[in-house]
């Protein structure tokens, strides 16, 4: 069986490569490796998320399940006033994320964890998530709860998920956890939900 990317320390031999990404008017060369999610290039779900998310007025953002840092690398360029906390369970991926976001590392904090640590306060305007479907529904729903905990009142969780990967039930879980949930993108089996934390 192929090794799971959702692991703290991938055992598969390292074989780094450079990929090129063009999205949101940004052209980047990024380093990826075996044992990380979507090592061959920008996956379709993350591309749709990147093209949809708006962070005008946001300051503190969590890239939850950051992988090799592609979301932060792109949106940190598009929205230069944002500060980022990149979180991933995969140490190899997080090391790559440090390299790939080096041009604005002074705006980034890197955390190796399988979720948002308990000691993180409710200080974030947005959380962005392409959930680790292969890790299972319990893990994904825990990440929803983690996001709700650390968002400021009015803060937003943005999540991209395919219908075949459980978008309808994920929507129901988001509606149980957050005060309001909008479907901001729906095309070709992909959904992007924007869940907003209440003011109280």
Automatic annotation (TrEMBL):
Keyword match Heme: no
Ligase in keyword set: no
Molecular function GO labels: methyltransferase activity
Pfam families cross-referenced by the UniProt entry: MTS
Annotated keywords: Methyltransferase, Transferase
Any one Gene Ontology BP term: methylation
UniProt domain Methyltransferase small: residue ranges: 28-193
Protein name (database record): Methyltransferase
């Amino acid at each position: 069986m192929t090794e799971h990317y959702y692991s703290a320390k991938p055992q598969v031999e390292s074989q780094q490569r450079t990929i090129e990404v063009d999205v949101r008017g940004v052209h980047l060369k990024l380093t990826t490796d075996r044992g990380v999610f979507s090592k061959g290039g920008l996956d379709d779900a993350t591309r749709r998320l990147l093209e949809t998310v708006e962070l005008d007025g946001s300051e503190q953002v969590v890239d939850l399940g950051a992988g090799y840092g592609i979301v932060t690398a792109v949106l940190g360029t598009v929205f230069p006033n944002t500060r980022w906390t990149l979180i991933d369970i995969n140490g190899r991926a997080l090391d790559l994320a440090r390299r790939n976001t080096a041009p604005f590392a002074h705006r980034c904090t890197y955390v190796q964890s399988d979720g948002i640590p308990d000691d993180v306060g409710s200080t974030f305007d947005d959380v962005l998530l392409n959930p680790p479907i292969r890790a299972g529904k319990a893990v994904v729903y825990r990440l929803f709860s983690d996001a709700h905990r650390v968002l400021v009142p009015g803060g937003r969780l943005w999540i991209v998920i395919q219908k075949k990967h459980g978008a309808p039930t994920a929507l129901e879980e988001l509606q149980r956890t957050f005060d309001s949930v909008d479907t901001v993108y729906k095309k070709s089996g992909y959904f992007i939900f924007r869940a907003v934390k209440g003011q109280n």
